[in-house]
Amino acid sequence: MPDLTPAAWTCPLPLRDYPHVVMGHGGGGRLSADLVEHLFLPAFRNPALARLGDAAVLPPVPGRLAFTTDGFVVRPLFFPGGCVGDLAVHGTVNDLAVSGATPLYLSAGFILEEGLPLADLGRIVDRMAAAARAAGVAVVCGDTKVVDRGHGDGCYITTAGVGVVPDGVTLGVQQARPGDAVVLSGPVGNHGIAVLCVREGLEFETRVESDTAALTGLAAAVLAACPATRAMRDPTRGGLAATLNEIAAGSGVGIEIDEPAVPVDDEVRAACDLLGLDPLLVANEGKLVAVVPADAADHLLAAVRRHPLGTRAAVIGRVTDQHPRLVVARTAVGGRRVVSTPVGEQLPRIC
C-alpha cells in the first residue's frame, strides 16, 4: 500500500509544500495533475485508471448491467467507524449488491473546499481505496474540483457504480407476497447515532460506531441460500421504516413487524431514548433487509448468521394482505402502531 501522507509526496512537484487544498488543485493545470499522480493514482492503482483517458475503457462482461450513483456530504468528514471516503464506496457498492449485482467498477468525483488539509484528503483517499479493495471493485475514473473557502464542508464525494446481475436473479420491491418473511441482518441505528454523537459532542458510556460496510458478500450469501428471494434493500436514510414502507407500497401489501425482534444495540437505544428518536427511522450503512418465502426463512437466517456481518440477524416480521401499503409494529407491551416513512430527514447530513 503506498504511503499517502503528504510527507511522502515528492518530485516532480513537492505537494508537501501545499499543506492545504488550493484553488489550483482543481484548475486542470500542473497542480491538478500532480494531485492525480501523487495521490489518486497510487491509492486506486489499476490499469484502466492508469491510462488517464477521458473515459475508462473496460472489457465486456456477461450478464445484465446494473448502474447506480450517489453523493456523500456527511458532516463531520471523520466519525467513529468510518469517514466520507469508505462511506462513498460502501454506499454505492451496497446499492449494487442488494440489486443482486456483483459490483465491478466505481467512478469518484471529489468536490474539495479550498483550505482542506491535504493530510485529511490523504486519509480519506486511503480509506476509500481500502474499502474498494475489500469490496472487490476498482475505481477506474474520476474528477476533482475545488470550490472557494467557505463554500463547502471540506470534501464532498460522488460515486457511480457498475455491476453485473447474473442470469436468474430478479429482485424488486414489487415482488413481496402475503406470507413472506422479513429478515434483517443486524442491529439498526448505529450509523446515524455515531455521526450525530460526534457532530453534537454527545458522550455515552460506550462509544457508538458506524456500521458502514460493504454488503457484497452478505448479499451473495442471501442469494445462494435463497435463490427465490423476493427483494433486498439496505436501510440507509429513513432507516428500516423507510425501507419497509417502500416494499409495502411497491408490492401493495402490508408488513407486520415484531418490534422486540428488531435488534438494537443498548447504547443506540439509550441515545435514541435521550434524544427522542425512533431507532427504526435512524440510518444504517451496513445492514440488509430481505423478503423471502416463509418456508425459506429459517435456512436463510442460518446462512446470514454465518456471515461476519449477519451474526445478529433476525426474522423481524412478515408480509400480510391486511392493511395494504402500511407497516405495523407489534410493540413489547402488546400494542400496535403504524410505522410511517419519515417526512423529512430525521438526521440530516449523515451520508
TrEMBL record:
Residues 177-326 form the PurM-like C-terminal domain. InterPro entries: HypE, PurM-like_C_dom, PurM-like_C_sf, PurM-like_N, PurM-like_N_sf. Residues 54-165 form the PurM-like N-terminal domain. Coiled coil: none annotated. One of its GO terms (biological process) is protein maturation. It holds the Pfam family AIRS_C. Belongs to the HypE family. NCBIfam families: hypE. This is Hydrogenase expression/formation protein HypE.
